[in-house]
Amino acid sequence: MSTLIERHIVSLLAEKDDKAISLLYENYGDTLFGVAYKVVKDEALAQDVLQESFIKIWKKADTYDASKAKLFTWLFRIVRNTSIDKLRSVNNKSDKEIQIDVSDVYNIGVKSINPEHLDIQENLDKIEDKYRIVLEALFFEGMTQQEASDELDIPLGTIKSRLKIGLRELGKIYGTTMSLLLLLNLLS
Amino acid sequence: MKEKVKLFLESDILEKYLLGDTTKEETQKAERYIAMYPEVRETYDILQNNLETFANLYAKKTPEGLKEILLASAKKETMVSKRFMRYAVAASIAIMIFAGSSLFFWNQNKTLQEENTMVTNQIKYLEDNMKDQLADMRNQFIVLNNPSTKKYQVKGEREAKELKAIAYINPVKKLSYINVSNVPQLPEDKCFQMWAEVNGELVNLGVIKNFDEKDKLLALPYADKAVGYITIEPKGGNNTPSVDNIVANINY
User: Fold this and answer.
1) Alpha helices in chain A (DSSP H)
2) How are beta strands B190-198 and B150-155 bridged, if at all?
3) Do the chains contact at B51 and A163, CB–CB below 8 Å?
4) CB count in 10 Å sphere of residue A84
5) Which of A45, A183, B46, B214 is in the most buried spot, having the most CB atoms within 10 Å?
6) Among B62, B69, B78, B81, which would you mutate to test the A interface (most chain A Cβ atoms within 10 Å of its Cβ)?
7) d(Cα A148, Cα A160) in Å, to the nearest integer?
8) Between residues B103 and B238, which one has the greater pLDDT?
């Protein structure tokens, strides 16, 4: 079920109206930038990723099918894949440099999560580590389930079940908070 | 819940589809199940919402000025696309012109090749024909000018009394010719046909037509003690001579 703003953005994208870019940026910019940052772990690279992703979104607007995915899901896939591609290309160029960046920026990433809407750290802490690690590996590290199983030394079946449970339980954990937030946003 | 729906939901295809990590077959399967089964659609919607919730946890304030950069990139891309479209249209037209002219020249080339083959064949035919005619002319010259050539007057008999012909036989050069100078009128369903008996075999020399070429010499096959005949045959000629209708003999 798409929201009114989603439908509006989609129709602007289809008309190649650059207001679509502004609206996308205002509504999804921080989240998408956060996703890119979480993957590449470098602010400048994350900016490049977002720029490339927005060009892809702009160019591929006519391929978006609202019956197949919510706008955010579609945007997320584009940003995630662009981030993973960018990270791989940078890693190929300079493995060593990226290793340093990874260790340097990981903590910054967690600390600098947007505090405007939610107490992120607190909410992240609500997800049991065993689920969060699996979700992050699959969502942000670009790992396949098999790769996550090998990397995290967890059986493939456990990876599958933790992904499933982690994703489905997220709704229960944040459902109340998100509903309140939505209500507050509507009232403001 | 149907067993296969349950099995599908228990598999990780829907989660992989959510992230865009499915194979082509898995994508088709996921889209089919989402479209067909409300419980799959519901689960998929929940997963999408949860994905957004999870991603929101990592939201990070975008840097100042990034929005302007993104807007400028989109505008630039639009201009590039429009320019590309213009080039694409121009290129398409150029390709169409090139394809059209190529087809035209290919057709021209094909026609010229066919004409060339035809002309070559005609030249060859004319050459062969000319050689035959030259050889014939030379033989005629030999026959008419050679002192050993004998001249025989041929006269028609019965209904072809008016037929007049002169045969020229040269036993040295083994050449013989005949000049039919007058042919009587025959009913429309009849014609004169010439034959030669050479070494006991009858050779069809063809139908004598209107004889408007009265000065033309017709070659006869040469043989010792050969006999020539002119017969009256049904219109169009006959395969074997009608002995009863022999109207002239040419012994040479």
Assistant:
1) 4-14, 19-40, 43-60, 71-93, 95-111, 120-126, 129-140, 145-152, 156-187
2) unpaired
3) no
4) 17
5) A45
6) B62
7) 10
8) B103
- Using the beta-carbon criterion (under 8 Å), do B66 and A29 form an inter-chain contact? yes
Residue A137 banded pLDDT, cuts 50, 70, 90: confident
For residue A123, pLDDT over 50 is answered with yes
Q: What is the pLDDT of residues A1-54, one digit of tens each?
A: 568 888 899 999 888 888 999 999 999 999 999 999 999 999 999 999 999 999
pTM to 2 decimal places: 0.55
**ipTM topping 0.90:** no
Chain B interface, best mutation among A5, A38, A54, A75, by max B CB count within 10 A: A54
Phi, psi of B150 (to 5 degrees): -105, 145
Axis-axis angle for helices A71-93, A19-40 (nearest 10): 50
Sheet holding B227-234, edge to edge: B201-208, B190-198, B227-234, B246-251
Q: Does B32 touch chain A (CB under 8 A)?
A: no
What is the chain B residue with the closest CA to A39?
Answer: B58
Q: How many CB pairs under 8 A join A and B?
A: 145
Question: Which chain B residue's Cα is nearest to A139?
Answer: B19
Distance from CA of A93 to the nearest CA of B (A): 25
Cβ-defined contact of A123 to B78 (cutoff 8 Å): no
Taking only the tens place, the pLDDT of each residue in B97-118 is 999 999 999 999 999 999 999 9
What residue type is assigned to position B152 of the chain? Y
Q: Which residues from chain B sit within 8 angstroms of residue A59, using beta carbons?
A: 77, 81
In whole angstroms, what is the distance from residue A4 CA to residue A12 CA?
12
* Residue of chain A minimizing CA distance to B75: A18
**Which pLDDT score is estimated for A53?**
94
The Cα–Cα gap between B218 and B173 comes to 16
Give the distance, in angstroms, between the CA of residue B190 and the centroid of all CA atoms in the same chain.
Answer: 42
